[in-house]
Amino acid sequence: MAAAHFSFALAANEIGGDQAPANYFMRIAAPGYVTRMIQLGLRPTQAGLFALTMHALDSQPAGGGAAFDLVRDDVRIEDLAALP
């Protein structure tokens, strides 16, 4: 089984603003698994940190922020320093 891990450190101008978060789209593909399409919304919180909102564009459940439960709602994580 192959494993992958990616981390993105974002510059301040790549995070968006309080009223207009930056939006990114992530396509996740692996052999033997369903390809996922995820929309990521990023906005600043406190100095050097940001909040992430993850929305599944494919209507499939996603892993909740701090738990292993699958949820159909948007996932929100506050005060991130990097996108792991």
Structure overview:
With 84 residues, the chain is an all-beta fold. It has one domain. The protein has strands spanning 22-28, 36-44, 50-56, 62-63, 70-71, 75-80. A hairpin with a 6-residue loop joins β4 (62-63) and β5 (70-71).
Identify the notable features of this structure and list them briefly.
single chain; 84 residues; mainly beta; four-stranded antiparallel β-sheet; two-stranded antiparallel ribbon; globular
| Count of the separate structural domains | 1
Order of helices and strands: EEEEEE
Helix content: under 10%
How far apart the termini lie comes to 20 Å
Mean pLDDT: 84
Task: Give the spatial strand order of the biggest sheet.
Answer: 1-2-3-6
